[in-house]
Design a protein that fits this description.
The complex is a heterotrimer. By secondary structure, chain B is an alpha/beta fold. Chain B has nine helices and nine strands. The chains are: A mainly alpha, B alpha/beta, C mainly alpha.
Chain lengths: ~350, ~230, ~290
Amino acid sequence: MNLIARVRARSPYPQIVAVTIVALVVPLVLPELTFYMQLLMSAIVVVGLSLFMGYAGQAALGQGAFVAVGALTVGVFTVQWHLPPLLALVCAPIFAAAVAALIGWPLLRLRGHYLAFGTIAILLLVQALMGVIPLFGRGIGINGIPPLIVLPIEDAQTRNSLLKLIYVVIAVVLLVVALILSHRVVSSRFGRGIRALAGSESAAASAGVPVLGSKLHVFVLAAVFAGLVGALGAFYFPFINPESFPPDQSFEYVIMAVVGGVGTLWGGLVGAIAVGILLKLLNVLATLPEMPAVMGPTLQYAGYGLVLVLVLVFMPKGLVPTITAAWERRSAARSVASKDPAVVSAPEE
Amino acid sequence: MLHIADLVVRYGAATAVDGVSLDITEGEMVALVGPNGAGKSSLVNAISGMIHPASGSIELAGRTAQVPEGRQMFPDLSVDDNLRLGAWSLGRGKRDTAAIYDVLPELVPLRKQRAGSLSGGQQQMVAIGRALMAKPDLLLIDELSLGLAPLISEKLVEHLRRINTERGTTVLLIEQEVDLAFDLCARAYVIEAGRIVASGDTAILREDPALTAAYFGGFEKRGTAQ
Amino acid sequence: MTLFITFVISGLGVGAAYALVGSGFVIVHRVTHVVNFAQGTYAVLAGMLASRLITTGTPHGVGELLAVLVAGAAGLGVGAVVLARRDTPPFVALLITLGLVFVGLAINILLFGQNPAPSVPLLSGSVDILGATTEWQRLLVVPIALVVFGILGLFFERTDVGRAMTATASNRRAAQLVGINYRRMGLAAFAIGGLLGGIAGVLIAPSQQISPYADIPLAISGFTAAVFGNLSSPWLTLLGGLFLGVVGQLLQGYGVGSFQTQVSLILMLVILIVRARALNAQEEAK
């Protein structure tokens, strides 16, 4: 009991290392990487989104906009303009950051619902633009995105498999970076004590809600992660079209962030995995031969909706904080009972 | 009419009212004075049922209505509508405002005016009228004079005196302006840091040298609020 | 010219529906400070339900009325969930309504399928206006919407319950003091929002091919209309909705494509950015 309390009080780096190792081993035993890659991609976006939502107390309902910007950058740079893929990968987060700064600047100072709709606006606009502008694919999308790096392997199948594995590894690295950066923000002076869901708005306001500048920083940071995910996805799949970024996906991100627990270090990852697996199960259920066609979307949306509502009403802080709190209560009770003097965990920093 | 015994009110870890007992009989006008943060508003909110005490008892024979601190208008509604809403809890059909205009004739020309556009003194009058609409047996008035010129406060006090003598409404007046409160009320309680530190006839309290030195030089100078 | 008039008239019809959805946003927001994403879902529910009822024998008028009432009940349900806990911040409440939108979508798909509902106009046939041929159905929408807005205005200004809701919206503490039950007022606001959304759905379903997936686009257009009105003025919302509808129909009519939602959003973004300062000051004053 005390060991766990002590471990948690110290830095999360041991856990991050553990997660990294697991994340790198899993793909080696999976027959097919697509679902895993999607999980990783969602997790990266959601880690950033969760940070932003917990920090700013607002929801970005269209986070996919930044994923789309990143993917578009790669598509346009590599296929339309024949620029080096690595350059595209580097520029993707930059463009995503620019768009985020542009809409964050006016919208973040307003009440939360304006940003919520504002990000949906950007997403739908990007989709619309992809539908009409030839550069962006004009409805058909951009196909044949070249690999990020050229592998000197003859056999196309082996080469592709290895390539996908490399993308997965890059995604894991990205996830780890996202977690580390997230930790830095969460445990900073600002991150501590800002629990937007924990109290009323006025209480948060009088407690010193972060200034616009800091909110913007975190918003842009989340957009950078999303942009990188979009770029990586463009290489992985390797095509993009307007249907690649449906609004549903963006709502999914929000649901994952909420379920895991916004503003916490592990909330994003936990939420992405939990909801991702749940939705996959529902999908499998819906495609069973006995199921009528209408069950597919019905189960999917019922899943989204009920998970979100139930968590928000009964467990508003999300999985990670709720379980952590329950754990702490139990360990405190047990320590009191056993009169263990080493109960108080030494806080780091 | 009102019997409070050992009342304790807490806000989280802070104790706002720390074992207060007081009594008010029907028809009285009683003042509750004390510095900022002494617990006056918490006590009043507990009496009107807005907050729940941690312990102790409040026995109340009849209805209360509160004239809140800062007037608390419904700014977009007219004076008449504000008054009507005062009788919300009485139910449909009992919301006629005519009687209030008899008591507070200054409001008649203002009937249709937006409450948010009135002066402080006018709003305070509306607040009193709104409270009276609920036909209370006990009128709780929280900081009558706050932000108002002395002349206006005195006029309001005149109205209160008439309300008390003509309608028999019991009045509990929470006030920082001690002179004003003692002019109106025959009896007073002095509260500080959540406790009653003195009580009795205002005529006698005024003469008490210890209290005069401590309190009646002006509460702002004391700076005892924690 | 006649084409132009046709587009304007149908734009007004669509816009009036957006305004009704938008006024639902406004009323709920004023009283509870919550933005209720489900406003569009009510319209879909009522529109598809009315269509189903009427095509299976329920007479016109009755079918629409029932559908609107069901939408009102749905509004009440949403309100009950959103207001279940006393201390829910508006940010969380918005997300709860989002979750309920999905639940609603699932229910709508289950009940009505994924395809648009068959069109059952109250009035059939068309009429010539200024040389343009317009269906009678489309002409119904604006007058009915105006009547609804008028009734709404009367409700808030002349009835005690309406005044109580306005009071709760402007000074919750004083409302509490006077004995107004905040939760009840909030539920009433949500129910009215449901009714308004339902009326919108019933009015445009015949001309507009509503499927369950129209919920969020309707909510977005309705919200944009409400933003026109600063989330507080129903009449400005009406204006905004009409403007939005007309612009959208003109764009679609003249062949640029169907971009109603995007147009709404761009307009909304523009308004928000232009008004950011003013809106911000207003928020801070609260």
